[in-house]
Design goal:
Distance between the termini: 73 Å
Largest sheet: none
Radius of gyration: 20 Å
Number of helices: 5
Strand content: under 5%
Structural class: mainly alpha
Helix content: over 70%
Oligomer: single chain
């Protein structure tokens, strides 16, 4: 029986989405996730297989939670939605900041004349 996505899982997805957007990797991540959506269960099983090797090199606190999430098809869709929302918000803020800078430059030029 499949377990549902918990609040902790949602926090992990939000954290991962935030990191992807902060690194400006939203477009490649969305493309990769869309293409690999049918293979998410196989990916989770690969994580199980490689866990001993990965855990010796890196320490991931939430490794098991990410593996469990990857088993659920809806988790990939939730991650996609979250990445798209955060990316749209970041683009909106950047557009507003550019507009403010442009207005400030215009105000400085008209003030100097």
């Amino acid at each position: 029986m499949e377990s549902e996505i918990t609040e902790n899982h949602l926090k992990l997805l939000d954290n991962l989405a935030q990191k992807i957007v902060e690194r400006r990797m939203a477009a490649p991540a969305i493309f990769f996730l869309e293409v690999s959506k049918p293979l998410n269960f196989i990916g989770s099983q690969m994580l199980v297989f490689f866990e001993p090797i990965i855990q010796t090199v890196y320490t991931f606190q939430n490794y098991d939670s990410y593996r469990q999430l990857l088993e659920k098809r809806e988790a990939i869709e939730l991650l996609l939605v979250r990445i798209e929302a955060l990316d749209a918000e970041q683009r909106r803020r950047e557009k507003e900041a550019r507009k403010r800078r442009k207005e400030q430059r215009r105000a400085r030029r008209t003030g100097k004349n």
